[in-house]
Protein backbone atom coordinates (compact mmCIF):
# COMPACT_ATOMS: atom_id res chain seq x y z
CA UNK A 1 0.00 0.00 0.00
CA UNK A 2 1.37 3.40 -0.93
CA UNK A 3 2.43 5.58 1.96
CA UNK A 4 0.85 8.97 2.52
CA UNK A 5 2.72 11.85 4.03
CA UNK A 6 1.31 13.83 6.92
CA UNK A 7 0.92 16.83 4.62
CA UNK A 8 -0.96 14.76 2.05
CA UNK A 9 -3.20 13.23 4.70
CA UNK A 10 -3.93 16.69 6.08
CA UNK A 11 -4.98 17.89 2.61
CA UNK A 12 -7.13 14.88 1.79
CA UNK A 13 -8.99 14.79 5.11
CA UNK A 14 -9.64 18.53 5.56
CA UNK A 15 -12.91 18.55 3.58
CA UNK A 16 -14.12 15.29 5.14
CA UNK A 17 -13.41 16.37 8.70
CA UNK A 18 -15.01 19.77 8.10
CA UNK A 19 -18.26 18.13 7.02
CA UNK A 20 -18.06 15.50 9.77
CA UNK A 21 -17.32 18.15 12.34
CA UNK A 22 -20.33 20.16 11.32
CA UNK A 23 -22.52 17.07 11.57
CA UNK A 24 -21.06 15.97 14.90
CA UNK A 25 -21.26 19.43 16.38
CA UNK A 26 -24.84 19.87 15.24
CA UNK A 27 -25.77 16.48 16.70
CA UNK A 28 -24.03 17.17 20.01
CA UNK A 29 -25.63 20.58 20.35
CA UNK A 30 -29.05 19.21 19.51
CA UNK A 31 -28.67 16.46 22.10
CA UNK A 32 -27.16 18.71 24.75
CA UNK A 33 -30.46 19.85 26.20
CA UNK A 34 -34.23 19.82 25.84
CA UNK A 35 -35.71 21.10 22.58
CA UNK A 36 -36.38 24.82 22.39
CA UNK A 37 -39.84 26.34 22.44
CA UNK A 38 -42.07 25.99 19.42
CA UNK A 39 -41.86 28.96 17.04
CA UNK A 40 -44.50 31.56 17.77
CA UNK A 41 -47.18 32.10 15.14
CA UNK A 42 -46.98 35.29 13.14
CA UNK A 43 -48.59 37.98 15.30
CA UNK A 44 -51.44 40.22 14.23
CA UNK A 45 -51.92 43.76 15.50
CA UNK A 46 -54.69 46.30 15.74
CA UNK A 47 -53.10 49.76 15.68
CA UNK A 48 -54.12 52.96 17.40
CA UNK A 49 -52.84 56.55 17.39
CA UNK A 50 -52.32 58.07 20.83
CA UNK A 51 -49.59 60.71 20.94
CA UNK A 52 -47.51 60.79 24.15
CA UNK A 53 -49.02 57.58 25.61
CA UNK A 54 -48.99 57.28 29.40
CA UNK A 55 -49.89 53.78 30.62
CA UNK A 56 -52.01 52.69 33.56
CA UNK A 57 -52.83 49.05 34.30
CA UNK A 58 -56.01 47.89 36.01
CA UNK A 59 -57.29 44.41 36.74
CA UNK A 60 -58.90 44.03 33.34
CA UNK A 61 -56.61 45.76 30.83
CA UNK A 62 -53.90 48.21 29.86
CA UNK A 63 -54.89 51.76 29.01
CA UNK A 64 -52.94 54.66 27.58
CA UNK A 65 -53.87 58.34 27.83
CA UNK A 66 -52.19 61.00 25.71
CA UNK A 67 -52.36 64.37 24.03
CA UNK A 68 -55.57 65.86 22.61
CA UNK A 69 -57.51 63.83 25.18
CA UNK A 70 -56.90 60.59 23.25
CA UNK A 71 -57.09 57.24 25.04
CA UNK A 72 -57.05 53.54 24.13
CA UNK A 73 -57.27 50.13 25.80
CA UNK A 74 -55.80 46.68 25.18
CA UNK A 75 -56.01 43.28 26.85
CA UNK A 76 -52.90 41.80 25.24
CA UNK A 77 -50.76 44.77 24.07
CA UNK A 78 -51.26 43.59 20.48
CA UNK A 79 -54.79 44.72 19.72
CA UNK A 80 -55.76 48.26 20.69
CA UNK A 81 -59.16 49.90 20.78
CA UNK A 82 -59.55 53.68 20.82
CA UNK A 83 -61.91 54.98 23.52
CA UNK A 84 -61.53 58.76 23.17
CA UNK A 85 -59.97 61.42 20.96
CA UNK A 86 -60.00 65.18 20.42
CA UNK A 87 -60.87 68.01 22.80
CA UNK A 88 -64.54 68.41 21.94
CA UNK A 89 -67.78 68.36 23.95
CA UNK A 90 -68.35 64.82 22.62
CA UNK A 91 -65.22 63.34 24.21
CA UNK A 92 -66.52 60.65 26.65
CA UNK A 93 -63.79 61.27 29.25
CA UNK A 94 -65.61 64.46 30.39
CA UNK A 95 -69.20 65.61 30.38
CA UNK A 96 -68.01 68.62 28.37
CA UNK A 97 -64.29 69.20 28.55
CA UNK A 98 -64.50 72.60 26.85
CA UNK A 99 -66.58 73.86 29.78
CA UNK A 100 -65.00 71.79 32.53
CA UNK A 101 -61.42 72.96 31.83
CA UNK A 102 -62.24 76.46 30.58
CA UNK A 103 -59.81 78.11 33.04
CA UNK A 104 -56.87 76.07 31.75
CA UNK A 105 -57.70 76.88 28.13
CA UNK A 106 -58.02 80.57 28.94
CA UNK A 107 -54.66 80.76 30.75
CA UNK A 108 -52.79 78.85 28.03
CA UNK A 109 -54.49 80.58 25.08
CA UNK A 110 -55.29 77.23 23.48
CA UNK A 111 -58.19 74.92 22.76
CA UNK A 112 -56.45 71.56 23.23
CA UNK A 113 -54.66 69.50 25.89
CA UNK A 114 -51.25 67.85 25.89
CA UNK A 115 -49.83 64.66 27.43
CA UNK A 116 -52.32 63.58 30.09
CA UNK A 117 -51.34 61.13 32.83
CA UNK A 118 -53.79 59.00 34.87
CA UNK A 119 -53.04 57.23 38.17
CA UNK A 120 -55.10 55.41 40.78
CA UNK A 121 -55.77 57.17 44.08
CA UNK A 122 -55.45 55.55 47.54
CA UNK A 123 -59.25 55.38 47.79
CA UNK A 124 -59.65 53.51 44.50
CA UNK A 125 -60.59 56.39 42.21
CA UNK A 126 -58.65 57.69 39.22
CA UNK A 127 -56.95 61.07 38.94
CA UNK A 128 -56.00 62.64 35.61
CA UNK A 129 -53.15 65.14 35.47
CA UNK A 130 -53.90 67.34 32.47
CA UNK A 131 -51.96 70.21 30.95
CA UNK A 132 -52.72 72.94 28.43
CA UNK A 133 -49.99 74.86 26.61
CA UNK A 134 -49.97 77.84 24.26
CA UNK A 135 -47.46 76.00 22.10
CA UNK A 136 -45.12 78.68 20.81
CA UNK A 137 -44.13 79.63 24.38
CA UNK A 138 -44.13 77.97 27.83
CA UNK A 139 -47.46 79.57 28.76
CA UNK A 140 -49.03 76.52 30.38
CA UNK A 141 -51.44 75.35 33.07
CA UNK A 142 -51.47 71.98 34.88
CA UNK A 143 -54.33 70.62 36.93
CA UNK A 144 -56.16 67.48 38.02
CA UNK A 145 -59.54 65.89 37.42
CA UNK A 146 -61.04 62.95 39.34
CA UNK A 147 -63.31 60.07 38.29
CA UNK A 148 -64.84 56.98 39.87
CA UNK A 149 -64.21 54.95 36.71
CA UNK A 150 -60.99 54.96 34.74
CA UNK A 151 -62.81 55.93 31.55
CA UNK A 152 -64.63 58.81 33.19
CA UNK A 153 -66.42 61.04 33.33
CA UNK A 154 -63.73 63.15 35.02
CA UNK A 155 -64.53 66.21 37.16
CA UNK A 156 -62.11 69.12 37.37
CA UNK A 157 -60.24 69.66 40.66
CA UNK A 158 -58.57 72.87 39.54
CA UNK A 159 -55.22 74.18 38.30
CA UNK A 160 -52.28 73.79 40.69
CA UNK A 161 -49.31 74.98 38.58
CA UNK A 162 -48.78 77.69 35.95
CA UNK A 163 -45.87 78.85 33.83
CA UNK A 164 -45.20 81.59 31.30
CA UNK A 165 -46.26 84.59 33.44
CA UNK A 166 -43.87 86.97 31.69
CA UNK A 167 -42.58 89.89 33.80
CA UNK A 168 -44.63 88.62 36.76
CA UNK A 169 -43.75 86.60 39.88
CA UNK A 170 -43.76 82.87 39.17
CA UNK A 171 -44.68 79.94 41.42
CA UNK A 172 -41.40 80.26 43.35
CA UNK A 173 -41.76 84.03 43.87
CA UNK A 174 -39.12 85.05 41.31
CA UNK A 175 -39.93 86.80 38.06
CA UNK A 176 -40.65 84.08 35.53
CA UNK A 177 -37.68 83.28 33.30
CA UNK A 178 -38.24 80.63 30.63
CA UNK A 179 -34.55 79.75 30.56
CA UNK A 180 -34.49 78.59 34.19
CA UNK A 181 -38.13 78.02 35.16
CA UNK A 182 -40.09 75.05 33.82
CA UNK A 183 -42.82 74.70 31.26
CA UNK A 184 -45.68 73.17 33.26
CA UNK A 185 -46.52 70.23 30.98
CA UNK A 186 -45.78 66.49 30.57
CA UNK A 187 -46.72 65.29 34.07
CA UNK A 188 -46.02 61.83 35.45
CA UNK A 189 -47.42 61.02 38.92
CA UNK A 190 -45.96 58.02 40.77
CA UNK A 191 -45.16 56.61 44.22
CA UNK A 192 -41.47 56.25 45.03
CA UNK A 193 -39.81 53.35 46.88
CA UNK A 194 -40.33 55.06 50.23
CA UNK A 195 -44.08 55.48 49.65
CA UNK A 196 -44.00 59.21 48.87
CA UNK A 197 -46.27 60.52 46.13
CA UNK A 198 -44.30 62.42 43.50
CA UNK A 199 -44.81 64.32 40.26
CA UNK A 200 -42.09 64.73 37.65
CA UNK A 201 -42.76 67.15 34.79
CA UNK A 202 -41.22 69.64 32.37
CA UNK A 203 -40.42 70.30 28.73
CA UNK A 204 -37.84 72.53 27.03
CA UNK A 205 -37.51 75.86 28.91
CA UNK A 206 -35.73 75.39 32.26
CA UNK A 207 -35.71 71.59 32.29
CA UNK A 208 -37.21 68.76 34.34
CA UNK A 209 -38.58 69.27 37.87
CA UNK A 210 -39.86 67.08 40.74
CA UNK A 211 -42.64 67.86 43.22
CA UNK A 212 -43.95 66.01 46.28
CA UNK A 213 -47.71 65.47 46.25
CA UNK A 214 -50.40 65.29 48.89
CA UNK A 215 -51.90 61.80 48.31
CA UNK A 216 -55.34 63.00 49.34
CA UNK A 217 -55.68 66.01 47.03
CA UNK A 218 -53.16 64.97 44.39
CA UNK A 219 -51.78 68.53 44.43
CA UNK A 220 -48.26 69.54 45.50
CA UNK A 221 -47.66 70.08 49.19
CA UNK A 222 -47.27 73.81 50.00
CA UNK A 223 -44.03 75.75 49.87
CA UNK A 224 -42.25 73.90 47.05
CA UNK A 225 -42.54 76.46 44.28
CA UNK A 226 -41.71 74.59 41.09
CA UNK A 227 -40.00 71.82 43.05
CA UNK A 228 -36.53 70.30 42.76
CA UNK A 229 -34.65 71.03 39.55
CA UNK A 230 -34.31 67.32 39.14
CA UNK A 231 -32.15 66.93 36.09
CA UNK A 232 -31.26 68.19 32.70
CA UNK A 233 -32.43 71.08 30.73
CA UNK A 234 -32.17 74.81 30.69
CA UNK A 235 -31.94 77.59 28.12
CA UNK A 236 -34.80 75.95 26.19
CA UNK A 237 -32.92 72.69 25.56
CA UNK A 238 -35.14 70.24 23.69
CA UNK A 239 -35.56 67.76 26.54
CA UNK A 240 -39.04 66.71 27.64
CA UNK A 241 -41.50 63.98 28.57
CA UNK A 242 -39.90 62.72 31.83
CA UNK A 243 -40.90 59.34 33.21
CA UNK A 244 -39.38 57.72 36.31
CA UNK A 245 -39.24 53.93 36.56
CA UNK A 246 -37.98 52.30 39.75
CA UNK A 247 -36.62 48.75 39.84
CA UNK A 248 -36.47 46.87 43.14
CA UNK A 249 -34.13 44.34 41.55
CA UNK A 250 -31.45 46.84 40.59
CA UNK A 251 -32.17 49.43 43.28
CA UNK A 252 -32.11 52.30 40.77
CA UNK A 253 -34.52 54.99 39.67
CA UNK A 254 -34.39 55.41 35.88
CA UNK A 255 -35.26 58.79 34.46
CA UNK A 256 -36.45 58.33 30.89
CA UNK A 257 -36.55 61.53 28.83
CA UNK A 258 -36.90 62.38 25.15
CA UNK A 259 -34.40 64.58 23.33
CA UNK A 260 -35.09 66.48 20.10
CA UNK A 261 -38.23 67.51 18.24
CA UNK A 262 -41.36 65.40 18.08
CA UNK A 263 -42.15 65.73 14.35
CA UNK A 264 -40.85 63.50 11.57
CA UNK A 265 -37.78 65.69 11.01
CA UNK A 266 -37.25 66.54 14.68
CA UNK A 267 -35.06 63.59 15.65
CA UNK A 268 -36.98 62.55 18.78
CA UNK A 269 -34.92 59.94 20.68
CA UNK A 270 -35.08 58.26 24.08
CA UNK A 271 -32.33 58.78 26.69
CA UNK A 272 -31.88 57.54 30.26
CA UNK A 273 -30.00 58.40 33.43
CA UNK A 274 -30.19 56.63 36.78
CA UNK A 275 -29.88 57.39 40.47
CA UNK A 276 -30.13 55.64 43.84
CA UNK A 277 -32.33 58.52 45.03
CA UNK A 278 -35.53 59.70 43.42
CA UNK A 279 -34.27 63.26 43.85
CA UNK A 280 -31.07 62.56 41.93
CA UNK A 281 -28.46 63.29 40.85
CA UNK A 282 -29.10 61.22 37.75
CA UNK A 283 -25.98 60.05 35.94
CA UNK A 284 -25.42 58.50 32.53
CA UNK A 285 -23.05 55.56 31.88
CA UNK A 286 -20.17 58.03 31.44
CA UNK A 287 -20.77 59.33 34.96
CA UNK A 288 -22.03 62.69 33.69
CA UNK A 289 -24.55 64.55 35.84
CA UNK A 290 -27.57 65.14 33.64
CA UNK A 291 -28.25 68.46 35.35
CA UNK A 292 -25.36 69.76 33.25
CA UNK A 293 -27.19 69.04 29.98
CA UNK A 294 -28.41 72.42 28.81
CA UNK A 295 -28.31 74.56 25.72
CA UNK A 296 -25.69 77.23 25.12
CA UNK A 297 -27.47 80.57 25.71
CA UNK A 298 -25.12 82.20 23.22
CA UNK A 299 -26.49 80.03 20.39
CA UNK A 300 -29.90 80.12 18.70
CA UNK A 301 -32.85 78.37 20.37
CA UNK A 302 -32.99 74.58 20.36
CA UNK A 303 -29.25 74.07 20.40
CA UNK A 304 -29.21 70.26 20.25
CA UNK A 305 -25.44 69.97 19.89
CA UNK A 306 -24.83 71.08 23.49
CA UNK A 307 -27.02 68.35 24.99
CA UNK A 308 -26.09 65.60 22.55
CA UNK A 309 -23.31 63.99 24.64
CA UNK A 310 -25.56 63.40 27.68
CA UNK A 311 -27.63 60.35 28.59
CA UNK A 312 -27.55 56.77 27.34
CA UNK A 313 -29.47 56.65 24.08
CA UNK A 314 -31.93 53.75 24.07
CA UNK A 315 -34.01 54.32 20.94
CA UNK A 316 -33.99 56.66 17.95
CA UNK A 317 -34.42 56.84 14.19
CA UNK A 318 -33.67 53.58 12.40
CA UNK A 319 -34.60 51.45 9.41
CA UNK A 320 -34.30 47.64 9.38
CA UNK A 321 -32.16 46.32 6.54
CA UNK A 322 -34.11 43.06 6.21
CA UNK A 323 -37.43 44.79 5.52
CA UNK A 324 -38.03 46.15 2.03
CA UNK A 325 -41.43 47.74 2.62
CA UNK A 326 -41.87 51.33 3.70
CA UNK A 327 -44.00 52.59 6.56
CA UNK A 328 -44.79 50.80 9.84
CA UNK A 329 -42.57 47.76 10.22
CA UNK A 330 -39.67 49.21 8.24
CA UNK A 331 -38.30 51.15 11.21
CA UNK A 332 -38.99 54.12 13.47
CA UNK A 333 -38.91 57.86 12.91
CA UNK A 334 -38.85 60.16 15.95
CA UNK A 335 -39.90 57.57 18.57
CA UNK A 336 -40.36 58.91 22.07
CA UNK A 337 -42.47 60.36 24.90
CA UNK A 338 -42.50 57.07 26.76
CA UNK A 339 -44.04 55.50 29.82
CA UNK A 340 -43.36 52.11 31.37
CA UNK A 341 -44.93 49.36 33.44
CA UNK A 342 -43.43 46.46 35.41
CA UNK A 343 -45.20 43.44 36.87
CA UNK A 344 -44.96 42.96 40.63
CA UNK A 345 -42.19 40.36 40.25
CA UNK A 346 -40.51 42.41 37.49
CA UNK A 347 -40.51 39.44 35.15
CA UNK A 348 -42.33 41.62 32.62
CA UNK A 349 -41.22 45.21 32.07
CA UNK A 350 -42.73 47.06 29.12
CA UNK A 351 -42.02 50.38 27.43
CA UNK A 352 -44.87 52.33 25.80
CA UNK A 353 -44.17 54.99 23.19
CA UNK A 354 -45.44 56.61 20.03
CA UNK A 355 -43.47 56.61 16.81
CA UNK A 356 -43.61 57.81 13.25
CA UNK A 357 -42.34 55.64 10.41
CA UNK A 358 -40.25 55.87 7.23
CA UNK A 359 -41.98 57.71 4.40
CA UNK A 360 -45.33 58.12 6.17
CA UNK A 361 -45.14 61.76 7.18
CA UNK A 362 -46.66 62.56 10.56
CA UNK A 363 -48.62 59.32 10.91
CA UNK A 364 -47.93 57.96 14.39
CA UNK A 365 -48.98 54.86 16.33
CA UNK A 366 -48.52 53.31 19.76
CA UNK A 367 -45.75 50.75 20.15
CA UNK A 368 -44.83 48.45 23.07
CA UNK A 369 -41.35 46.96 23.64
CA UNK A 370 -39.86 44.79 26.35
CA UNK A 371 -37.26 46.32 28.66
CA UNK A 372 -34.37 44.14 29.78
CA UNK A 373 -31.56 45.03 32.17
CA UNK A 374 -27.85 44.44 31.68
CA UNK A 375 -25.81 42.68 34.38
CA UNK A 376 -24.90 46.04 35.92
CA UNK A 377 -28.40 47.41 35.90
CA UNK A 378 -28.79 49.50 32.74
CA UNK A 379 -32.03 49.22 30.74
CA UNK A 380 -31.92 47.78 27.23
CA UNK A 381 -34.85 48.01 24.81
CA UNK A 382 -35.79 45.01 22.66
CA UNK A 383 -35.35 46.17 19.06
CA UNK A 384 -38.62 44.69 17.81
CA UNK A 385 -42.06 45.53 19.21
CA UNK A 386 -43.69 43.15 21.66
CA UNK A 387 -45.46 40.37 19.75
CA UNK A 388 -46.78 38.16 22.54
CA UNK A 389 -43.54 36.33 23.29
CA UNK A 390 -43.04 35.18 26.91
CA UNK A 391 -40.42 36.72 29.13
CA UNK A 392 -36.93 35.36 28.56
CA UNK A 393 -35.64 34.03 31.88
CA UNK A 394 -32.02 33.76 30.73
CA UNK A 395 -29.67 36.31 32.16
CA UNK A 396 -32.25 37.88 34.43
CA UNK A 397 -31.37 39.57 37.67
CA UNK A 398 -31.52 37.26 40.69
CA UNK A 399 -34.75 36.91 42.63
CA UNK A 400 -35.34 39.00 45.71
CA UNK A 401 -34.45 37.24 48.93
CA UNK A 402 -36.39 37.49 52.19
CA UNK A 403 -36.76 41.00 53.50
CA UNK A 404 -36.47 42.58 50.06
CA UNK A 405 -32.73 41.88 49.73
CA UNK A 406 -31.10 40.69 46.56
CA UNK A 407 -29.67 37.21 46.66
CA UNK A 408 -25.93 37.04 47.25
CA UNK A 409 -25.31 36.02 43.64
CA UNK A 410 -26.08 39.54 42.46
CA UNK A 411 -25.50 40.56 38.86
CA UNK A 412 -22.81 43.14 39.69
CA UNK A 413 -19.45 41.33 39.79
CA UNK A 414 -16.92 42.93 42.06
CA UNK A 415 -19.42 44.92 44.15
CA UNK A 416 -20.23 44.25 47.75
CA UNK A 417 -23.90 44.47 48.70
CA UNK A 418 -24.87 47.75 50.30
CA UNK A 419 -28.06 48.84 51.99
CA UNK A 420 -31.05 46.59 51.35
CA UNK A 421 -28.81 44.09 49.59
CA UNK A 422 -27.96 46.45 46.74
CA UNK A 423 -24.56 47.34 45.33
CA UNK A 424 -22.98 50.09 47.38
CA UNK A 425 -21.94 52.16 44.37
CA UNK A 426 -22.74 52.17 40.65
CA UNK A 427 -20.13 50.64 38.35
CA UNK A 428 -17.35 52.92 37.17
CA UNK A 429 -18.06 54.76 33.90
CA UNK A 430 -16.91 53.00 30.77
CA UNK A 431 -14.94 54.45 27.88
CA UNK A 432 -16.90 55.70 24.90
CA UNK A 433 -16.41 52.69 22.65
CA UNK A 434 -18.09 49.37 22.06
CA UNK A 435 -15.10 47.37 23.25
CA UNK A 436 -15.34 48.89 26.74
CA UNK A 437 -19.04 48.08 26.88
CA UNK A 438 -18.27 44.53 25.76
CA UNK A 439 -15.72 44.17 28.55
CA UNK A 440 -18.20 45.63 31.04
CA UNK A 441 -20.65 42.85 30.20
CA UNK A 442 -17.93 40.20 30.43
CA UNK A 443 -15.49 41.27 33.20
CA UNK A 444 -11.97 39.91 32.89
CA UNK A 445 -12.03 38.26 36.31
CA UNK A 446 -15.19 36.22 35.77
CA UNK A 447 -14.75 32.52 35.00
CA UNK A 448 -15.75 31.76 31.38
CA UNK A 449 -18.68 29.47 30.79
CA UNK A 450 -18.41 25.84 29.66
CA UNK A 451 -14.84 25.60 30.96
CA UNK A 452 -13.44 27.80 28.19
CA UNK A 453 -9.91 29.01 29.01
CA UNK A 454 -9.19 32.64 29.75
CA UNK A 455 -6.86 34.55 27.46
CA UNK A 456 -4.13 34.49 30.11
CA UNK A 457 -4.21 30.68 30.09
CA UNK A 458 -3.47 30.41 26.36
CA UNK A 459 -0.02 29.98 24.82
CA UNK A 460 1.50 33.34 23.93
CA UNK A 461 1.69 32.36 20.26
CA UNK A 462 -2.09 32.20 19.96
CA UNK A 463 -3.04 35.37 21.87
CA UNK A 464 -2.64 37.85 18.97
CA UNK A 465 -4.73 35.60 16.71
CA UNK A 466 -7.34 35.20 19.42
CA UNK A 467 -7.54 38.94 19.95
CA UNK A 468 -8.04 39.54 16.23
CA UNK A 469 -10.77 36.91 16.00
CA UNK A 470 -12.64 38.15 19.08
CA UNK A 471 -12.65 41.78 17.96
CA UNK A 472 -13.66 40.76 14.47
CA UNK A 473 -16.74 39.07 15.92
CA UNK A 474 -17.38 42.01 18.23
CA UNK A 475 -17.14 44.45 15.32
CA UNK A 476 -19.53 42.30 13.31
CA UNK A 477 -22.10 42.47 16.06
CA UNK A 478 -21.73 46.00 17.35
CA UNK A 479 -19.93 48.36 14.95
CA UNK A 480 -21.92 50.61 12.62
CA UNK A 481 -21.41 50.05 8.93
CA UNK A 482 -22.50 52.27 6.05
CA UNK A 483 -26.09 51.59 5.10
CA UNK A 484 -26.78 49.33 8.09
CA UNK A 485 -28.64 50.16 11.32
CA UNK A 486 -26.90 49.88 14.65
CA UNK A 487 -28.27 47.77 17.52
CA UNK A 488 -30.64 49.60 19.82
CA UNK A 489 -28.61 51.25 22.57
CA UNK A 490 -25.37 51.25 20.54
CA UNK A 491 -23.69 54.66 20.38
CA UNK A 492 -25.92 56.48 17.95
CA UNK A 493 -28.83 54.21 18.90
CA UNK A 494 -29.84 53.32 15.33
CA UNK A 495 -29.36 56.90 14.20
CA UNK A 496 -28.26 57.62 10.67
CA UNK A 497 -24.65 56.58 9.93
CA UNK A 498 -22.34 59.54 10.07
CA UNK A 499 -24.67 61.75 12.10
CA UNK A 500 -23.43 63.86 14.99
CA UNK A 501 -25.49 61.79 17.38
CA UNK A 502 -23.91 58.59 16.12
CA UNK A 503 -20.41 59.95 16.68
CA UNK A 504 -20.87 61.62 20.04
CA UNK A 505 -23.56 59.82 22.04
CA UNK A 506 -21.98 58.13 25.10
CA UNK A 507 -22.13 54.40 25.42
CA UNK A 508 -21.98 52.24 28.50
CA UNK A 509 -23.29 48.93 29.75
CA UNK A 510 -26.77 49.96 28.60
CA UNK A 511 -25.50 50.16 25.04
CA UNK A 512 -25.54 46.46 24.18
CA UNK A 513 -28.36 44.11 23.31
CA UNK A 514 -28.27 40.52 22.15
CA UNK A 515 -29.67 41.43 18.77
CA UNK A 516 -27.76 38.96 16.60
CA UNK A 517 -25.34 39.80 13.81
CA UNK A 518 -27.76 42.08 12.00
CA UNK A 519 -28.46 44.09 15.14
CA UNK A 520 -32.16 43.85 14.36
CA UNK A 521 -33.52 40.48 15.50
CA UNK A 522 -34.70 39.85 19.05
CA UNK A 523 -36.52 36.56 18.58
CA UNK A 524 -35.06 33.07 19.14
CA UNK A 525 -33.42 31.49 16.14
CA UNK A 526 -31.13 34.34 15.15
CA UNK A 527 -28.19 33.00 13.15
CA UNK A 528 -24.58 33.62 14.14
CA UNK A 529 -21.54 34.07 11.92
CA UNK A 530 -20.01 30.94 10.41
CA UNK A 531 -17.34 29.12 12.47
CA UNK A 532 -13.76 29.50 11.23
CA UNK A 533 -13.33 26.53 8.92
CA UNK A 534 -10.01 25.48 10.43
CA UNK A 535 -11.46 25.02 13.92
CA UNK A 536 -13.66 21.99 13.20
CA UNK A 537 -11.07 19.72 11.56
CA UNK A 538 -8.55 20.41 14.29
CA UNK A 539 -11.17 19.77 16.92
CA UNK A 540 -12.21 16.47 15.34
CA UNK A 541 -8.57 15.37 15.12
CA UNK A 542 -8.12 16.13 18.79
CA UNK A 543 -11.24 14.20 19.72
CA UNK A 544 -10.03 11.15 17.75
CA UNK A 545 -6.62 11.24 19.48
CA UNK A 546 -4.91 11.64 16.12
CA UNK A 547 -1.83 13.13 17.69
CA UNK A 548 0.33 11.50 15.05
CA UNK A 549 -0.95 14.03 12.52
CA UNK A 550 -0.36 17.18 14.48
CA UNK A 551 1.38 17.86 17.73
CA UNK A 552 -0.55 17.79 20.99
CA UNK A 553 0.38 21.44 21.57
CA UNK A 554 -1.12 22.51 18.22
CA UNK A 555 -4.32 20.56 18.90
CA UNK A 556 -4.62 22.08 22.36
CA UNK A 557 -4.07 25.52 20.91
CA UNK A 558 -6.80 24.96 18.30
CA UNK A 559 -9.20 23.73 20.97
CA UNK A 560 -8.43 26.74 23.18
CA UNK A 561 -9.05 29.10 20.24
CA UNK A 562 -12.36 27.39 19.52
CA UNK A 563 -13.51 27.65 23.15
CA UNK A 564 -12.45 31.28 23.49
CA UNK A 565 -14.10 32.21 20.19
CA UNK A 566 -17.40 30.41 20.65
CA UNK A 567 -17.85 30.25 24.42
CA UNK A 568 -17.09 33.78 25.70
The mean pLDDT is: 74
Our estimate of the beta-strand percent is 15-25%
Distance between the termini: 46 Å
Describe the sheet with the most strands.
5 strands, antiparallel
Q: What is the H-and-E element order?
A: HEEEEHHEEEEEEEEEEEHEEEEEEHHHHH
Question: Would you mind describing this structure in some detail?
Answer:
The chain has 568 residues and is α+β, with helices and mostly antiparallel strands. Helix content is 17%, strand content 22%. The chain has helices at residues 6-31, 97-100, 102-108, 304-307, 434-441, 463-478, 500-504, 535-543, 552-566; strands at 54-57, 62-65, 71-74, 80-84, 114-120, 126-133, 140-147, 155-163, 188-191, 197-201, 208-212, 228-231, 239-246, 253-259, 269-275, 312-315, 318-319, 331-342, 349-356, 365-373, 379-381. The strands form five sheets. It has a five-stranded antiparallel β-sheet, with no helix packed on it. A four-stranded antiparallel β-sheet has the order 1-2-3-4, with no helix packed on it. A four-stranded antiparallel β-sheet has the order 5-6-7-8, covered by helices on one side. Helix 1 crosses helix 8 (535-543). The longest helix has 26 residues, at 6-31. It is globular, with a radius of gyration of 27 Å. The two termini are 46 Å apart. The model is unreliable at 1-31 and 395-551 (pLDDT under 50).
